[in-house]
Amino acid sequence: MVSWLSSALLASLTPPQITSRARLDIAIGDMPPRPLLLGLYGDAAPKSVKLFEGLCSGTLNVPGLQYTGSAISHIERGRIIIGGSPSGGTTRTAERSLDSTGYVRTEMLNRADAFRNDDTNALSHDRAGLLSMRKGGGAFEFGLTPAPNLMLDENRLVVGEAIGEESMWLIAELNEVPTRQPSALSELGGVASLYGLRLGLGLGFAGLIGQGLQLSRRDALLVTALGTASAAFVGSDPRDGVDLSYRPLKKVRIVRAQLLGDG
Questions:
Q1: How far apart are CA 189 and CA 166, in angstroms?
Q2: Whole-angstrom Cα distance, residue 78 to residue 153?
Q3: For 168-204, how does the pLDDT look when each residue is reduced to its tens digit (9 = 90+)?
């Protein structure tokens, strides 16, 4: 019994083995690209690592589906850095089919759905410099920890680590890149401005109709209500748009990605 517990404790304390290495050359703004060296845990997360390797080497049999040319798209300071979403619309594909009426229907599918997996391990986001992927797969983006963040354990899987001081310095520099911050005040201001525009357009529309038709005051009020309601169709709620929170305010690019081979 004691021997079994000792073995289990030793296994939990043994660092995961690096089975392969990758290099991402990352450029921040107009600065020359700098290397980020990564060691991958192929035994601890085999399917996730295989996907990461394929995106580094560009060998997933889909033209353009690779990390080279992708961007660092999300920097939540002190929490997580997200990058690697392939560009050029390569993450989606069109699937066409005939329905019962003979009409051709087109459905856009996410290519990442084909890379879902059942990888699991007990590794935690307990230090800076860890590489992670989404649990269960279904996403191409990778994450880097600029600091310990155990909250990531719920939805993300540790699949590797940064290697060397230069890589850690680069992660620290990425963590300091200015980003677009979420603001409840600015969001409410945008919503208020939108509905103010809608109301103004509606009232103006109703006023023009009232003047043209020379309506009574009561009828003009009814038309005003109608115009105000019609203004709701102008524009769209900014909360329905793409969330740009934590988007870097300067361009951060993965200029080149390559697989270096076994660890």
A1: 42
A2: 15
A3: 999 999 999 999 988 754 444 444 445 555 555 555 5
pLDDT in tens, 13-60: 678 999 999 999 999 999 999 999 999 999 999 999 999 999 999 998
Neighbours of 136 (CB within 10 A): 14
**Residue 199 tokens, joined:** 């109301």
Task: Please count the other Cβ atoms lying within 10 Å of the Cβ belonging to residue 166.
Answer: 12
Strand partners, 98: 104
Cβ–Cβ < 8 Å for 180, 244: yes
- Tens of pLDDT, residue by residue over 3-13, are 544 444 444 56
Q: What angle do CA 147, 151, 156 make, to 5 degrees?
A: 90
Write out the H or E segment, with its range, that includes residue 183.
Answer: none
Q: How far apart are CA 129 and CA 143, in angstroms?
A: 10
Q: Tokens for 230, please give them.
A: 């019609």
- Read off the amino acid at residue 198: R
CA dihedral 146, 55, 39, 46 (to 10 degrees): 110
